[in-house]
C-alpha cells in the first residue's frame, strides 16, 4: 500500500506542478506553444485522478487497514472531519475546474490566469497530505504555510520547465526559436524567485521536521539520506539552470540578432532543459517517498 501511495503522491506532485507552473510561464512569458492545451488536459486529468486515489489509499494507510479506505462511512468522516479530507475535496474541485477549462476553452493561454489560480489551489492543498500539516498550533500553521510556499515554488520551476520543453522541441523555424528565447528569458526571472523561495521554505521544513540538534546527523536515517540525495539533485539542477541562463540563452540571443534565415541550433538548450527536467522528476520521486518516512524530530 505504501508503494501505491508513493506513486499517487508522485503523480499528484508532477501533474500539480505542471498545472500551475505551465500557465504561470505562459502568462508571464506571453507564450502559447502548440501542445499546451493537450499538456494541460493531461495534467488536469492526472491531478484529479491522483486526488481521487489519495483519499481511499491514504485513509487505509492512516488506519493501518486497506479495507478501511473502502468504507464509505469512514471516508465520509475523513472528508467532513479532517483537514486532510477537506484538502482532497478542494484538490478535486480545483483539478476538475482546470480540466473543464482545458477541455472547453479553445485557447488555454486566454484562460491562463484562472488555470494558474486553480493549479495553485490544488498544489498548495497538497501540504495537508504530508508532513507539512504535522504540527499543531501557531507554529504548525507557520510550517504548513512554509510547505505551501515550497510546493508553489517547486511547481513554478518544474511546471515552467515543461513549457520550455514544448517551446524548444516545437521550434522548427526562426520565429519559433525567437518565442523559445522569450520564454527562456522570462523563465529566468521566475526561476530565481522559485529557487530563493525553495531554499527559504525548505530550511523552515527542515528545522520543523529534523530539529536543529539533528541537522548534523541527517545521514544517519532513511529520511535524512533521502533528503541529502534530493539536495544533491537540486544542486545539479541549479548548475544547469545557471548555464542555460548565463551561457546558452545569451548565445541563442546573439545568433537570433544576426538575423540569419536559418533557425539557430537549439540542440544544447534542448538537452540541458531535458536533463534539468529529468533531475526535477527525480526530486519529485524522492519527496513522494520522503513524506512517508518518519522524520528525525517533530518541532524546532
Ligand atoms: C528543485 C528543488 C526542490 C523541489 C522541486 C522540492 C519539492 C518538494 C516537495 C514537492 C515536497 C513535498 C512537500 C509535501 O509533502 O508537503 C518537498 C518537501 C521538502 N523539501 Fe523540498 N524541494 C526542493 C528543494 C528543497 C531544498 C533546497 C530544501 C532545503 C533547503 C528542501 C527541503 C524540503 C523538506 C525538508 C521537505 C519536507 C519533507 C517531508 O515532508 O518529509 N527542498 N520538497
Folded structure, characterized:
- The protein is an all-alpha fold and 300 residues long.
- The protein has a single domain, classed as Formate dehydrogenase/DMSO reductase fold, CATH 1.20.1630.
- The protein has nine helices and no strands.
- The protein has helices at residues 2-29, 36-63, 72-81, 83-104, 112-125, 137-170, 174-210, 222-257, 267-290.
- The radius of gyration is 20 Å and the shape is globular.
- The structure holds protoporphyrin IX containing FE.
- Protoporphyrin IX containing FE is lined by residues 13, 126-127, 130-132, 147, 150-151, 154, 157-158, 198-199, 202-203, 205-206, 209, 227, 231, 234, 237, 280, 283-284, 287, 290-291, 295.
Question: What is the CATH domain class?
Answer: Mainly Alpha
**Beta fraction of the residues?**
under 5%
Radius of gyration: 20 Å
Distance linking N and C termini: 31 Å
Overall body shape: globular
User: Quick one: biggest sheet?
Assistant: none
Q: What is the number of domains?
A: 1
- The helix tally amounts to 9
Ligands bound, unique: protoporphyrin IX containing FE
What would you say the CATH architecture is?
Answer: Up-down Bundle
Approximate helicity band: over 70%
CATH topology: Formate dehydrogenase/DMSO reductase fold
Give the number of DSSP strands.
0
Identify low-pLDDT runs: none
In N-to-C order, the SSE pattern is: HHHHHHHHH
Mean pLDDT, to the nearest integer, reads 92
The SS-based structural class is mainly alpha
Amino acid at each position: 500500500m505504501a508503494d501505491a501511495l508513493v506513486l499517487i503522491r508522485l503523480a499528484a506532485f508532477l501533474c500539480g506542478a505542471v498545472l500551475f507552473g505551465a500557465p504561470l510561464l505562459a502568462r508571464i512569458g506571453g507564450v502559447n506553444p502548440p501542445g499546451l492545451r493537450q499538456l494541460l488536459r493531461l495534467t488536469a486529468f492526472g491531478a484529479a485522478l491522483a486526488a481521487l486515489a489519495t483519499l481511499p489509499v491514504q485513509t487505509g494507510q492512516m488506519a493501518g487497514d486497506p479495507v478501511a479506505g473502502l468504507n464509505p462511512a469512514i471516508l465520509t468522516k475523513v472528508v467532513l472531519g479532517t483537514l486532510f479530507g477537506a484538502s482532497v475535496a478542494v484538490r478535486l474541485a480545483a483539478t476538475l475546474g482546470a480540466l473543464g477549462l482545458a477541455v472547453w476553452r479553445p485557447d488555454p493561454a486566454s484562460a491562463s490566469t484562472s488555470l494558474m489560480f486553480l493549479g495553485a489551489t490544488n498544489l498548495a492543498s497538497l501540504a495537508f497530505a504530508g508532513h507539512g500539516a504535522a504540527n499543531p498550533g501557531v507554529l504548525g500553521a507557520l510550517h504548513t504555510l512554509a510547505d505551501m510556499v515550497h510546493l508553489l515554488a517547486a511547481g513554478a520551476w518544474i511546471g515552467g520547465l515543461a513549457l520550455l520543453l514544448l517551446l524548444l522541441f516545437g521550434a522548427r523555424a526562426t520565429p519559433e526559436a525567437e518565442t523559445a528565447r522569450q520564454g527562456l528569458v522570462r523563465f529566468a526571472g521566475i526561476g530565481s524567485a522559485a529557487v530563493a523561495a525553495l531554499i527559504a521554505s525548505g530550511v523552515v521544513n527542515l528545522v520543523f521536521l529534523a530539529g536543529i540538534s539533528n541537522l548534523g546527523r541527517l545521514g544517519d536515517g532513511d529520511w535524512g539520506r533521502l533528503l541529502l540525495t534530493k539536495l544533491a539533485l537540486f544542486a545539479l539542477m541549479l548548475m544547469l539552470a545557471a548555464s542555460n541562463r548565463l551561457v546558452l540563452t545569451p548565445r541563442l540571443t546573439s545568433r537570433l540578432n544576426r538575423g540569419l534565415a536559418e533557425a539557430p541550433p537549439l540542440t544544447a538548450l534542448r538537452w540541458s532543459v531535458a536533463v534539468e527536467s529529468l533531475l526535477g522528476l527525480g526530486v519529485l520521486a524522492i519527496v513522494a517517498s520522503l513524506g512517508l518516512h518518519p522524520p528525525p524530530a517533530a518541532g524546532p
